[in-house]
Amino acid sequence: MAFKDFIKRRSLKARDDQRTRAAELTLRASLYPICLVTVLFFLWGFSYGLLDTLNKHFQNTLQINKARSAGLQAAYFGAYPLASLGHANWILRHYGYRATFIWGLCLYGVGAFIAIPCILARSFAGFCIAIFVIGNGLGSLETAANPYITVCGPPRYAEIRINISQAFNGIGTVVAPVLGSYVIFTFSDDEAIQNVKWVYIAIGIFVFLLAFGFFLSTIPEITDADMAFQANETHANADDKPFWKQYRLFHAAFAQFCYTGAQIAIASYFINYVRDTQPTSTDPLAARFLAGAQGAFAIGRFIGVFLMRWFKPRHVFLVFLTCCIIFIAPATNHDGYTGMSLLYVVLFFESICFPTIVALGMRGLGRHTKRGSGWIVAGVSGGAAVPPLTGVAADAHGTALAMVVPLSFFVAALSYALAVNFVPAYRDPADAFSTAEIGMVEHRTGVDEETADLGDEKATKSEHEL
């Protein structure tokens, strides 16, 4: 009997037509679920950083050109739309966030174990298939984790929360190239393959354990009814329109496609850029330079969060994205440490762009939040399109001049940053959430978050603030 009760309490099914206390979580109440979900951000930062290092490794060991090596990025990021608009979004809308987290982690673990025989066989095509499965897992995690962090807690701090969590993504991208520089480039090919095998074994075991941890954990399920309540309370009310008329959302998804494609292209060919512009450098040294650049990226997120405490997130976003364009332009024709330093600055300013597009793009979506998050995360598929274009340009004209490709996509993404700052239809919903009082005081709703019905709720505010 106790086991049946335990399984019932661990149910992965959440009803979206019921409002729960999760709509009004305070900073203190949201701390545990945010910390748990933040672990996922480190995981895909590590996976993505390791991929950039393996990109160069396969060029060396399999004698493939830069354009073909971008097949790793195409397989990884090409899986995102399949997850965010397909299976993961279906699970998110019909079951809930926790079920989607567990699903994504299991796919990640399966992909990691598939990768092992492919690595040992030195099969680039096989490894791309494994990376495609991993991409489906990580796409599932992003489909749930990004909106969850955005909506879990006071709405006015959404951009700050997601940037702090995404900062751990940045830490993962620093750790992976450093690890790669020691376990891949400093060993013979045979030894490096054995080392990479053990890395993926460790990843597979860890993510399955983490999936079990999510099964045992109790985290608030934030429903469509909760989000409709938030949109109504903040007077953002974008969800009173049909989903297909949410043009702000689709513009954000377009910006995410362009921005992410540019970011991935720069990171994917950073090692090539260093080798091409500094002929005396080595692959291990270039991998450590990449780790340093990713360190600048992670630091940028913390500094961006600090600035968002004093300036509106949309203003910080506009300045940072504009600086990406300003500093990558001269990197296309500078050699040596000057060009590499410019890319360091570009990665610093890239830092807050992805999570801020997510947060701003979902402002006021209300009951459309879960569907909308799928579209914004699908924009990550830009990482499958832009790196191959950059690789073709690099093979033909050199890696430095090829940076014109991500530059052009940064310019396209800037259209959304300008709109959210200067077009009232974009700006007003963003600002409405920035001043919301929801979650800023303790609420005693008496609402059971698993069984309560929207029509039966009665809420009263506590007198003291957290």
Please tell me about this protein's structure.
The longest helix has 35 residues, at 27-61. The protein has 466 residues and is mainly alpha-helical. It has a two-stranded antiparallel sheet with strand order 1-2. Helix 4 packs antiparallel against helix 17. It has helices at residues 2-9, 27-61, 66-69, 71-94, 97-120, 124-151, 158-183, 189-216, 224-233, 247-268, 270-277, 283-308, 313-331, 336-350, 353-361, 369-378, 382-397, 399-402, 404-422, 424-434; strands at residues 441-444, 460-465.
Task: Give a quick rundown of the structure.
This protein is an all-alpha fold.
Brief descriptors of the model:
mainly alpha; Growth Hormone, Chain: A; MFS_TsgA-like; transmembrane helix; transmembrane
Strand elements, count = 2
Tally of individual helices: 20
Q: Which CATH top level class fits?
A: Mainly Alpha
CATH-defined superfamily: MFS general substrate transporter like domains
Residue share in helices?
over 70%
Gross geometry: globular
CATH topology grouping: Growth Hormone, Chain: A
What's the rounded overall pLDDT mean? 80
Subcellular location: Cell inner membrane
Biased composition (Basic and acidic residues): 455-466
Protein name: Uu.00g077180.m01.CDS01
Transmembrane segments: 29-51, 101-134, 198-219, 249-273, 285-308, 315-331, 343-362, 374-394, 400-423
